[in-house]
Amino acid sequence: MSPLLYGASAVALVCLALAMAFAMVRVFRGPSAQDRVLALDALYICGMLVMLVLGIRYTSEMFFEAALLIALFGFVGSASMAKFLLRGEVIE
Prior knowledge:
- One of its GO terms (molecular function) is sodium:proton antiporter activity.
- Its main location: membrane.
- This is K+/H+ antiporter subunit F.
- It is a multi-pass membrane protein.
- It comes from Piscinibacter gummiphilus.
- The protein has one domain.
- The chain has helices at residues 3-29, 33-58, 61-87.
- Helices cover 87% and strands 0% of the residues.
- With 92 residues, it is mainly α.
- The chain contains three helices and no strands.
């Protein structure tokens, strides 16, 4: 790996960790349930991006598969939370 790519991945990981910290603050201090759900969406997207950056950094396909699973479960979780906030129940 070139030193430029190594440094860029380190900067990206630090920025993503900072974004995850801000999202966690919004999850705990969100004024409404919709803000908390949106912060959870941002949190899973940042987690997926961390896995992708680690996959590029270590040239491992296992991280890409983990990112795909995070995206899948995050979408299902977001859809179920949105349905719960709209209707008050998940299963009809």
